[in-house]
Amino acid sequence: xxxxxxxxSFAGRLIYHISRHKYFxxxxxxxxxxxxxxxxxxxxxxxxxxxxxxxxxxYGSETNESDDSDRTLKQExxxxxEKGYSEEDKNLIIVDWxxxxxxxxxxxxxxxxxxxxxxxxxxxxxxxxxxSAIYTxxxxxxxxxxxxxxxxxxxxxxxxxxxxxxxPIFFSPLSENATFGRSSIYIITLFxxxxxxxxxxxxxxxxxxxxxxxxxGFFASPCLATGAASVSDVTKGQYLPAAxxxxxxxxxxxxxxxxxxxxxxxxKGGWRWCFWFMLILSGFSLIxxxxxxxxxxxxxxxxxxxxxxxxxxxNEKITSRGLLDNERTSKKQLAIETFWRPIEITILxxxxxxxxxxxxxVYSVLYLFFEVFPIYFVxxxxxxxxxxxxxxxxxxxxxxxxxxxxxxxxxxxxxVPILKGKQIFPEVFIPIAIIGGTLFASGLFIFGWSxxxxxxWIGPIIGVAVTSSGTFLIFQTLFNYMGASFKNEYLASxxxxxxxxxxxxxxxxxxxxxxxxxxxxxxxxxxxLGSTVLACxxxxxxxxxxxxxxxxxxxxxxxxxxx
Length: 563
Prior knowledge:
By secondary structure, the protein is mostly helical. The protein has 23 helices and two strands.
């Protein structure tokens, strides 16, 4: 295990502070460290010490020197740069990476370390995402024990999904604050999630169950909302879409594997054992990540480095951009960025609104499967609870197949041109999104009309796999399209908006989802008409990526948030 994984972990930082910086020292704290000239008190800052550096746009090539010169000239003419730093900041020493190849920059870590970190985030995402629907195979046990109906028992899924839709509004801005960073938020919220599994497993009434599920979803949300940002922390821009796709497999594996393990646990130990299992799994994750999940957010790492250099040299002029931003951001500005900006972007940006609606529909269908599977596989095909859990793995199989095609394709369409120095536009992702939309709608048709009372169950399984493969392609391409379309400083708000809308809408579908299919049931085709309604809506919504492909540049030109 690399030393930095332990040194920069939550445990490493705790030991570092408790020991008063005796253990887990950084290079600049060692006695043999040679302090760069620019950090001394009597050093007179030069222009290159306070000029803005490249924003590291993950979806474009590096800014060249002429761009930096033009930007610096404009800043000098205006007396203030685009981050709000004024002439007086020329007296400050802004800490940055020592060079483009600085080994402390997470983007420069060895490949094996970056891959291991992405695996950690994917595993963390899977281990808490499983909780969203893990108890659904045992929902009849809950109905009998609490003497409630099926829609009321489904409120547990609704509450959890709603919780992790609301959570990012609070946690995403915190994770992008240099004071907090990402690692500490992951560990603290995971600890609370871990503790919440105990009362959830012991609860005696449905009201308490629903409240605990909401809190569980709320504190599970950081890795679901910020996981992609953590992946981007350690991934160079040209490789980011492929890295995000790898992480997303873990995100999709959770909802697919949850019912699988939930089915086995419900049969062998009862529905409460689903949450004892989550306690064990999240506890294992907590122990591992407490010691070996390092901080990767660059502004946080640089802010810490600035404080160490300030203590080493006694030069109070040493600071970082993250520290300056915190000092100069008022509570009003922070409130606007946290609560209002995601809403404003959703209302004013047609690109964000249309993508949010599309992905919310896709997300809703994914959670509808938790209700329609028992209708067909248990009531019609008489699957056992465990066999029902195995059927849910078809969602994961579809995603894995799609990923096998998507990752090489996006590498050729996105990464290779950037490596050759070509300019890439966001619309490069849209053709694959259209393919994903077609697969998504086709899979719903296949599922609905092959799920008969007289044919083999493999047809609906194939339909589900096709649907989930389309879901994966839609998610990957449209998320990347938004990431490539909007300025970096607004991306947290863009994705928080998407997470809120898709989770809020998707959370209510399990409540009434079963009625969509049972009320439209035909004798030999129990779920055909319900699936057809969804498939027709999905077909119509393919027009959204087509619209972006034809008019994307025009829409971005009208936006004050777009690049």
